Amino acid sequence: MDRQPVPVPTRPRARRQSGRQSGRRWSALVGTAVPLALAAALAPAALARPTTAASTAATRAGAYAAGLPASRTAAAANPGNPLAGRPWGVYKGTADQAWAPYAKATGTEKTLLGKIALRPRSTWFGAWTSDADIHAKVDKYITAMSGGDPNVLVQMAVFRMRPWEHNACTRLPTAAEQSSYKTWINRFASAVGAQHTAIILQPDGPFALCAPGGSKVPSRLIGYAARTFAALPHTAVYIDAGATDWPSDDPVKAANILTPASIGAVRGFALNSTHYVSTASEVAFGTAIVNELARRGYPGKHFVINTAQNGAPFRWAQKRTSNFDNSPVCTATMRTRCVTLGIPPTTDVASTRWGLGATDRARAAAHVDAFMWYGRPWLYMQADPYVKSRALALARTTPW
Q1: What is the rounded CA–CA span in Å between residue 278 and residue 342?
Q2: What is the distance between the alpha carbons of residues 148 and 99, in angstroms, rounded to a whole number?
Q3: pTM of structure
């Protein structure tokens, strides 16, 4: 594997996230505590409101108030899109690292922090939550995020593989670790049940390519999770395939990540989870992966792109620090090769608002289910803890 474009964390990511976001006291949706004028200003698109009584109640609770996906135009362009045409849950409460600082803030600071806190984001779940506790944690999270409405889309990222990141290049999971992984996945899935969910499966996917001896054991375990989640009635699974700059502009390598991980069983794949590449580049790269997968006998795959941190995009080779995961945030006067918030979460991916060219808009309309926020640039090393000064700088310098 070409290891050059691999961010080198100072310590294992799973350890850095241990104990974060317990799931307690999270509110399901943005409600009366959020000024609707502010929330409306943050929304990237109009919500195609559901018609059931339960989901109408969710809308009354303010589901439309937070940057949700939405236009009927987007749904029409991609009629099979499982993420379109429904409200997306937004969590709030002291258990969410981004919410508490927003709730305590006032004035301009509150407005800025709201650009993060009021938008749909994916919570990461991993080995820092035990096999015994994962069902209860996921159940509480879904209940809080959805308000008990199964039509509300709940977003999650599953980062359960052990070993992972650079450790995945030095050893394979033991028999006990493999068994534990499957138990954890099964209990996670049982908690999800019939809820509408979008799951980003195993961020930093290219580490699967460096398994010792070319082993497919990690990929097969990810495939087990992919098939288990895909068997749920309303869960859309997107397996992480890296980014345009990792594995470097190589759709064949990206497909080599996805194929043994059961890409044939799921909706598609995810790009840019922890990198900062431009949305246009990811649209083009993802389309090339779609074509490569079709060539291998997996036609019609779709993908999602993380836009949480690519408002001033740059590639691995353009990094300004060796601490890639914690790359510098943009300042008021510097808006290139730095980190700032990108396109707000939306399924209206082909809108001219996002500055994509005609070719990329057409590609996005055909293949991209959503621009989502499953990266966390407001956290130290994209993991833990929350850094308020970083969050404020991200919000202050975003072009969106």
Answers
A1: 9
A2: 20
A3: 0.84
